Amino acid sequence: MKRRPEPELMDTQEQALAYAQADFNESNTLFIDLLRRLDPGPLDGARVLDLGCGPADISIRFLRAWPKASCDALDGSQPMLDLARAALDALPGVAKRCRLIRDQIPSAALERGGYDLIISNSLLHHLHDPQVLWRTLIETGKPGALVLIMDLMRPASAGWVEALVATYADGEPKVLRDDFRNSLFAAFEPAEVAEQLAAAGLDGLEVGVVSDRHLAVSGRLPG
Ligand SMILES: C[S@@+](CC[C@H](N)C(=O)[O-])C[C@H]1O[C@@H](n2cnc3c(N)ncnc32)[C@H](O)[C@@H]1O
């Protein structure tokens, strides 16, 4: 099935709020589990970058699990960052280790070669040019930095898209069901991601299927 891109930023308040209020516990728990399986160690003093952080649920889960790391969390959407700010304000111990950055990748605001770990969940499928993400990893990661990128993967047919929407978004507000459907159409297939990585010179990273609707890219940047 052909890819159908969607707008990059989720920048209406309605869309951001519906997203922040949705229950992503299963997939966000999976993300942290995948990170643990990469055996990143204690990450004491580590600088972490969360690209396309949205309401910052993944950044917060990460900072709770690794209490001596700090995180720069970037998103181009102000409504998303307002929700991230509110979530962080309720958690002062975590908030002091998290810096929110409003910008759209490719971003000049990010330090070059500054990060020990780069994480991102559900950003890749938003990008009209996916190479922007892979270039951002190369530019902002330290040599040998650990990477975990998780995203939706595009199903083989429109019927399979509808089956996933019915399974995972039934009963959710229309704006969220529409977002999920559009995201599945906009997502990449694992083989396409492998081609993107090869073109970027990142074929040392692995692409794997990690659920019925998610793929993950993981490994270390060239050292
Ligand atoms: C589906 S949300 C994922 C949010 C969060 N990572 C999570 O897992 O809950 C995708 C986010 O990426 C942001 N985004 C899309 N394109 C972007 C870009 N080029 N630069 C920065 N943020 C972007 C959107 O505004 C949105 O908040």
TrEMBL record:
Entry's Gene Ontology molecular function annotations? methyltransferase activity
GO biological process annotation, one example: methylation
Q: Which residues form the Methyltransferase domain?
A: 48-135
Read off the InterPro entries from this record: Methyltransf_25, SAM-dependent_MTases_sf
Gene3D superfamilies found in the cross-reference section: Vaccinia Virus protein VP39 (3.40.50.150)
Keywords carried by this UniProt record: Methyltransferase, Transferase
Source organism's superkingdom? Answer: Bacteria
**What Pfam families is this protein classified in?**
Methyltransf_25
- What protein does this entry describe? Methyltransferase type 12
This chain's source organism reads Thiocapsa marina 5811
